[in-house]
Amino acid sequence: MIRIGIILIVIAWTVVIATTLKVMSKEVEGLRKDLTGQVYPIAKVDVDKNVLHSKITDRYQTPDGQWCFVTVVIKQEGDEIVKKEVLECSDTKQGQTQNEKIKELEKQIELEKARKPGYWELFAEFYYRDPNAPVYCRKYARPDSWFKRPGTVCLDPQGKWEVIN
Hints:
Number of strands: 8
Largest sheet: 5 strands, antiparallel
Order of helices and strands: HEEEEEHHEEE
């Protein structure tokens, strides 16, 4: 009996939260995406508090080489809620977003890794220094083969593994 009561309470709260989220996510009519910078009246409000929402979109580069942002500001002016879109441009990359900085650093790391030899390349260079050195091979598991027979891979002088059988 207690479990049924708890289940009913959870279901009721789920319905309340879902309804609240649906009401909060409704789009306001009159908001449009454009770069004119004009102010559009959205609705009349009786509350005398200033509502401020500001969002800076990701930067982009124009064909002439400028870096631009569009700043979207929604606020209350008097009895109206208005939307302003401001286009801000500069000639430098100062306005990089955090995600763009991370992507740029990841690219630099990948380029650095590509320039440096890996472990097996260095090992092969050291191991095959002696021209009489036997081929360096290892066994590896092959669970899908008949009788579970292991396979063999050998390291070539360039540091690449080749499957022998």
